[in-house]
Amino acid sequence: MSVVAAGTPVPDFVLRREDYRRFTQDDLRGKTSVLVFYPHAFSPVCTDQLNLYEEVLDRFAEQGATLYGVSCDSVWAQRAFKEKLGITIEQLSDFEPKGAACRAFGVYHEKGFPQRALVMVDPDGVVQWSYEAPSPADLPGANLIFDALAAR
Amino acid sequence: MGGLGSAPLPPLGPEDHLLGADEDEPLIVYADYECPHCAVLHARLVRDGGSWAFRHFPVRSKHPRAWAAACAAEAAALQGAFRQMHMALYADRARLEDPHLWERARALGLDVERFDADRRSDAVLARVRRDFESGVRAGVVTTPTVFERGAMRPSAPDEM
Question: Would you say domain A14-150 falls under CATH 3.40.30.10?
Answer without folding.
Answer: yes
